[in-house]
Amino acid sequence: MRRFLTLVTVAALTALVIAFVFHRPQQNPNSVAKLLPKETLALLHVPDFNKALADWRQADLYQLWSEPAVQSFLQKPRRKIPAGGSVGQKLQDLQSLEMKDSFIAVIGIEFSAWKIVGGFRSTEGGKKTEAMVANWMAQASADPAEIKHESLDYEGHRIRTDTSGVVRLFSVHDGQWFLFANDLEQLKPLLDRVDGRRKEMTTALAADKMFAPAAKRMPTAYAALAYARLDQLVEKFLPLAEKSATAAPEQVAMVRQLRNFCGATSFEGGKIRDTIFVGMPPLATSGDLARASLAIATKATFLYAAGFLNLAQPPRLPANPSLPGLMGALPQILATASASGITTERWNAAFGSEFGLVGDWPATSHWPSFFASLPVKDAAAANKILTTLTTADSETAAWTRREVDGIYYFSTQSSGMFFSLAPTVGLSDRMLVAGIDPASVEAALKRSQNKNSELAAANDFQNAERAVPAAKQAFIYIDPARVYARFDAVVRPMLFMSAAFLPGLRDTVDFDKLPDAGVITRHLSPIVMSQRYDGDGYVSESVGPITVYQTMMGAAALGTAAMIFYRQHDRESAAAPPYSAPPLASPSPDPDDTP
User: Fold this and answer.
1) Euclidean distance between the first and final Cα of the chain, in Å?
2) Mean pLDDT, residues 152-163
3) How far is CA 298 from CA 303, 360, 371, in A?
4) Structure confidence at residue 6 (pLDDT)
């Protein structure tokens, strides 16, 4: 009896394992990679479009977008966007297809002609899919009447051809699969693999020695995955870059080391996670991150980053005197260092390769403070290097040098377009800290002597740090809620003042409806990123309401849009007639006044 119960238990556990492995939703790039040829250059895969859209609508960022106060504030700016509703209609069309394993891939690039294939699985039937695609082509064409429709037979399938000018699309429906391509000879082998006429896996992308290891680094469940053979793409596009006068040899050499890229985006409890793998040889580093600069960070820190500097080749930067402070002087400083005999070897003997970057924004300060730090290996050698640099750079900036309790401070004065700064470099026997003024640098160096960090003890930081694997090569922490709260407190009054000087601005933005800071910040949790080297490439993971990479792209796009927006309204205000105040009304007589 006991043996029988044991067998039943083992059988039940085996059945559960089989059910888990074979009946759980499989979101694996191999399901599509088995259909594509090994020479595929790039791939985008969305396993379940409707699920990805549903997960996105549960994300913190979408919840922020859906806030009534946010929608009310955006109501006037959205009126400036041409109406059409095409995006919302297309989303509804895509949802109705219930697409699975949607993909688009670049098979080859020949003479600037990209060979593209794609497809998806749908249970909604081929006629509905074909009608929808035909409608999209008609909307995209300048003259729908000029679209030519033809068809041809291949292995029992009818391949439809839609031609509009130089654009040609071949499409075919095979069971639940809808496949398309802009090259007929690329569509045929794809169709053969779907039908099972081509079964050899050695020629498929799934068996490629570059693709398979990269795909294994991705999560089992994801909303979207992208893959690219960087080495082959570089060989196709690098000759154009090498002809450019701005392409430095060391930059070209760095790009040539890139082999492949794989990245996946997934949703986890309202947060977005990016997992990125870049295949390349390891850069020169000195072990794992120690994060000694974390001691500088405080409770008011909104940005902390740590990584390694690769100074095997000194950077070549163009001079830009329009940039304020150390930013504009950096090319001159590098040139001065080279002319003064400060070699890479001397620098690496004096300083460690791990850098730290800290951004603080206390509630008592109008503007944030930033610090950059390096560990000191040889204090005497480091002092000589800084003394040489600041002395040789006397023509560009007048540096003062002082010593307080064994710590040396080098300061200068810088006048930018909006701020007057006093860039300062502090040097102790353990750390170099550079900042925007002497007081903040002195305070940072005092904190560096502590073993404990205020930021490291914060719950938000600890929770964010646990959300990603241990960082070995790079680590980034951003507190967007603090940034927005401080930015709102400082900039909100300035926005109302700007609206007074730019009357046209109120035609686009209603600042009276600007949401309270709390409405925004309750949807903004910390953003974190960690990076490590894993065998044959770097693996980075980032988690947050948006990820570090999305933050960087969004900041660049937002900055560009803001600059364009400001210049447009500036030109409109300059063209408008000068503002004249209305005449003051005569004061009404006070009935209590007596002559």
Assistant:
1) 119
2) 90
3) 10, 7, 12
4) 42
Task: Determine the Cα–Cα distance for residues 274 and 549; give it in Å rounded to an integer.
Answer: 8
C-beta of residue 116 within 8 angstroms of C-beta of residue 179: no
Three-state SS for 590?
coil
CA dihedral 280, 282, 283, 285 (to 10 degrees): 160
From the list 400, 388, 317, the residue with the least C-alpha distance to 346 is 388
Cross-strand bridge partners of residue 45 = 103, 225
Task: For residue range 319-344, list pLDDT tens digits in order.
Answer: 444 444 444 444 555 566 666 778 88
pLDDT tens-digit series, residues 520-536: 999 999 999 999 999 89
The pLDDT tens digits for 195-208 are: 999 888 889 999 99
Once rounded to an integer, what is the mean pLDDT over residues 528-555?
Answer: 92
**Alpha carbons 33 and 103: distance in angstroms, whole number:** 10
**Contact partners, residue 127, CB within 8 Å, separation at least 6:** none
pLDDT tens digits for 447-475? 998 888 999 999 999 999 999 999 999 99
Instruction: State both tokens at 114.
Output: 């990209």
3-state secondary structure at position 47: strand
As given in the structure block, the two tokens for residue 451 are 């073993």
What integer is the mean pLDDT of 202-225? 93
The DSSP secondary structure of 59-102, one letter per residue, reads SHHHHHHT-HHHHHHHHHHHHTSPP--HHHHHHHHHHHHT-EEE
**CA nearest to 35, candidates 181, 223, 214:** 181
Q: Report how far residue 237's alpha carbon sits from residue 241's, in angstroms, rounded to the nearest whole number.
A: 7
Q: Which amino acid is at 575?
A: A
Cα Rg of the chain (Å, integer): 30
Residue whose C-alpha is closest to residue 311's, from 358, 258, 349: 349
Distance CA 411, CA 414 (A): 10
Report the length, in residues, of the chain: 595
**CB of 477 within 8 A of CB of 448?**
no
pLDDT digits (tens, 9 = 90+) for 256-304: 889 999 999 999 999 999 999 999 998 876 678 999 999 999 999 999 9
**Helix, strand, coil percentages, rounded to 5, for the chain:** 40, 25, 35
The structure tokens listed for 356 are: 């730290």
Cβ contact 130:171 at 8 Å: yes
**Full-model pTM:** 0.83
Name, in order, each residue with C-beta under 8 angstroms of 308's C-beta and a sequence gap of 6 or more: 283, 285, 286, 289, 353, 354, 355, 473, 474
Tokens of 489: 């407190």
**β-bridge mates for residue 104, sequence order:** 44, 118
**Residues with Cβ within 8 Å of residue 433, at least 6 apart in sequence:** 296, 371, 372, 373, 425, 426, 441, 444, 445, 448
Tokens 């300083």, residue? 351
Show the beta-strand stretches assigned E in 199-259: 224-228
